[in-house]
TrEMBL record:
It comes from the Eukaryota. GO terms for cellular component: extracellular region. Keywords: Secreted, Signal. The keyword Signal applies. It is found in: Secreted. Pfam families: SVWC (PF15430). Residues 1-17 form the signal peptide. InterPro entries: SVWC_dom. Residues 36-103 form the Single domain. The keyword Lipoprotein does not apply. This is Single domain-containing protein.
Length: 111
């Protein structure tokens, strides 16, 4: 009997941790107390971290109760003369998604 009870509790705990799917078949986020969430990213209240791929932002969870978050994007900058900025790489998370400076070899290799 104890083995059956442990097995049932284990199954219930596993199901409770799975994301729910709404009527339209869209996966809804799992509730994680003490965490803000945006899409599939969870950030603990008072902390910060990269947002979901495709947004190129760093988020800070300000208040779970008030559902308040702030974010920053890539800093603005001007490339050196003869160089240019790459586009955002939205396949990566912040800050790897931010534009990079692209220069010809003769500028890059100058000392």
């Amino acid at each position: 009997m104890l083995k059956i009870l442990i097995c049932v509790v284990g199954i219930i705990a596993t199901v409770a941790c799975l994301p729910t799917v709404n009527d339209q078949g869209v996966e809804e986020p799992v509730d994680k107390p003490g965490y803000c969430h945006i899409k599939d990213v969870y950030i603990k209240e008072g902390e910060q971290g990269p947002g979901p791929i495709g947004q190129c932002r760093r988020y800070k969870c300000i208040s779970v109760a008030d559902r308040r978050m702030s974010f920053v994007t890539c800093p603005g900058w001007v490339p050196r003369e003869g160089c240019h900025k790459s586009e955002h790489d939205l396949t990566k998370q912040y800050p790897a998604c931010c534009p990079k400076e692209i220069c010809p070899d003769e500028i890059t290799n100058k000392d």
